[in-house]
Amino acid sequence: MQIFAHHVSTAIESSRLYRKLGEQVNKLEEANKRIAENTQRLLRAEKLSVLGEITSQVAHELRNPITIIGGFARSLLKKRDVKDPDYEYVKIIAEETERMEKVLDNVLNFTKPKESQLEKVDLNQIVDQTLDMIEGEINLDKITVMKYLHPDLPPVIVNPDQIRHALLNLFRNAIWAMPQGGVLSLTTKRKDNFAKIGIKDTGFGIPKEHIDGIFDAFFTTKPDCCGLGLTISSEIIKNHGGFIVAESEKGKGATFSVVLPLERSCSDGAPNL
What we know:
By secondary structure, this protein is an alpha+beta fold. It contains six helices and seven strands. The strands form two sheets. The chain has a five-stranded mixed sheet with strand order 2-4-5-7-6.
């Protein structure tokens, strides 16, 4: 009987130890998971830090020649008559160099938009303006554009130059994915207190193993590309209180959803997409 009791006691003690060991293993697994997550955050922060240094150098190198070009263009614009056949071309050069100066100052340095830079704008108009900027690329690459823009979409308060730049990167990314031509579908709609821009292409899609990394700095599968376009777009939208979601299957195209708050406060939470 004593031997039996001893075995029972030993079994109970072993069971208790195994249970504690299991608890410690679970805690260790959770700790390892947190370490892995924090490591990824640190790597991303390090990448963005390096990106900040690089873009600062790029901005410094580009600002002077762009400012000079803009100055000459504005000077020529003042000297030309409105009826001059070259007037519109010079005007476009002057306007685009001014826009590039703003891009260098605001977007490439990942600065949050200042209140003085924010405007109440029509997102449908921003979409149309961005399309106009790449009309030549669309025609050259045999892209058919299908627009389904919500006619009563409420305005958003954003920096329009930055939002155009974010959309420009996304539009060009979609065009690049359709080298043989295809369909670029653009939609706008309201979801709760958010506005959503949908950008869908019929290109070759994004492999499942790449989808989680496409917004990381320097990540790219394109030849001769530095992998900053989607990173910049994502940071711009985040700085406006929004986010971008990417969905894709290899060979079935990709859809990017740009979500922006209709109000500057995001206290109502993200929409259920």
